[in-house]
Amino acid sequence: MIKALSRLLGVRRYTIAAFTSSQEFLAEHDASIPGCAVIDVCMPGLDGLELQQALTAKATSRPVIFLTGKGDIPTTVRAMKAGAVDFLTKPVRAQDLVAAIERAREADSRARQVQAELNSVESRIATLTPREREVLTHVVAGKLNKQIAYQLGTVEKTIKFHRGSIMKKLGVRMVADLVRLTEKAGISA
Prior knowledge:
Order of helices and strands: HHEHEHEHHHHH
Oligomer: single chain
CATH class of the largest domain: Alpha Beta
Number of domains: 2
CATH superfamily of the largest domain: Response regulator
């Protein structure tokens, strides 16, 4: 089955890495490489669902497509609830498999783009001083400069300076953009 799938996908110009066991896959898996995993439900060692759980436990967001010779509703439901892109029954039609792979690749691409944006936001936020972080939480809470100054025991001019520095470091011009950016990073008022 592995050879047949490898040939089928190779002809369609997919880059393939085939593994004969879930342990081998986990040992060689590189989450930084884009793509998806096509996993048989029944495998030696960890079965497909256990492999999916192992990937999730490693915080790996690898899209998974399941193949099975004997699909049942409980197994399908478990796989889909755990985030599988698709659950296909053998013998699988080539166009069904390719369509599932394309959906998985698109999901992977979107997830990588979201993660890259989050990493960018987090790296910009990391450039803030502790005082700027403190001022930031007050700004996104909608407080005025004079309110922030009073609460932090400083003068309004200092808050204006910090606020300007925050906006510059984070690459935003408006408070609404600042709020959206901090929401992405999970910073709340």
